[in-house]
């Protein structure tokens, strides 16, 4: 349990305060750049964290996530272009307010609703994560296998409408995870006598390649020119306005909590659901779509809540429920930190740093958000050609930092090409990343279980936790499959009608 | 040929290649019942099945309607050569880095990408490239203490 003195220690004896502010600032800047999602913003900073203290590194990534969720609303309101996917719902009324000359007010509502959502999410994170993680203390190899399968089962809901493609991407991810040294016998697999491959392909390379490089390649040659008005300043909402917004913010917080806990949920779904529900429960639903303050508050509260609550399944069980939490999981694994109760026991400072760092970032968001707005506008207004050059150089420099290896750069570039081809062919990339991240755990726990049972597969049905996790995984898959078939049938009917 | 059909064929090819490679994995006396080749073999079979399913779906959809299957990104498709060109600039960077070192290599990369992305050919590109390279050198080498390549051409100068 974190004590007051732990917090004082973190604030006075470690650079956590500066790490949190730095992460928040980077997150807001990255989130404000259209096309650079929260996960890409996190992936860009991931290699930098390699040389950092693990507690500071993970806190930095969590703060980047918080900042990016707010940053995404800036271009959404100012130029009708969501900086991140989860700020897409903010466009509807945020941009309308901008058109009415109320851009400063919309940015202020977005900022404060984000702070409310983030604080609620952080409270839930602190209250729920540790009790849930204790469950994992009773975990045996079959339980870990069940956990890995549960993690992989979310692929069904992250396949973007094509389960076959999602499964294929995950399988390729698992194949990548087999590169390196076999976890049981120690023989080398798919290393082709290349020493750099003995340790396997690091998940961070896959993430940077599939997220960041693929996005840069996609934007190459784009003629889109964005221009923000440089004179706009944030106008914070008054108490009476905050009072008026409390219903929509509450809706955002509750749905954000629900979606953060649900694998495959994510900020985008939470934001759109909150927008709909806020409209349904509003006293002035007719104003939605015409510059409603509630229409900005609800999605922003929701997506900022998700930025904290999505960490609950991640820290408790190691299940990443979104792209951003997958990057965070990559960060944890990179520093040898395994999510679960042992993380709370053996690396309590990491957990404390996440909590305290997030709190600092959320509170500082108000000041930093106001100060950094001109910088965001300046950055978005830079010519895309120079921006691409700087980001590309940053990515490649960061990757080299990992192992001082040019081979890693080659791997990341190759994965960038793979990611681009996957995008062309309509394959989702997140299942592939899940495969890479969870592959080792699934294989090693499966084989250890069989070693324990002398090859008897019944061991997976004799362990109550494994049975429970595998059953939940089965429910997820069946639920996702039924949804996919329902959607396919609906599309068919719509096509027949048209 | 539609993209799902091509994707299915590629999956089959990847599956076959992976299976062939996995068959070359050495045996170990420490190996368990599943062995080092167990998972790779299963994965290659799963990928092959998914490839066949994708091909079958592509053929059935083709028969069902004449229009191209939805869900693919034609805009991305049209930009493929350009995107590959962008990536090649990175590949050249990786190739020349050991020779010309981090600062010169990064300056070249920023400048080349800026020009490739349509920046006008003037002194601004040069200034941005050199300024950016020095900025990153200060962060990575001086601040973070990362040993970036000095470059064989400049060995002994730093």
TrEMBL record, chain A:
It comes from the Bacteria. Keywords: Membrane, Transmembrane, Transmembrane helix. Residues 18-434 form the DUF112 domain. Signal peptide: none annotated. The keyword Cell membrane does not apply. InterPro entries: DUF112_TM. The keyword Transmembrane applies. The chain crosses the membrane at residues 7-26, 106-128, 134-155, 167-185, 197-217, 251-275, 310-333, 354-380, 386-402, 409-439, 459-482. It holds the Pfam family TctA. This is Putative tricarboxylic transport membrane protein. It comes from Phyllobacterium trifolii.
From TrEMBL, chain B:
Residues 6-147 form the DUF1468 domain. This is DUF1468 domain-containing protein. Keywords: Membrane, Transmembrane, Transmembrane helix. Coiled coil: none annotated. It holds the Pfam family TctB. The chain crosses the membrane at residues 38-60, 86-116, 122-144. It comes from the Bacteria.
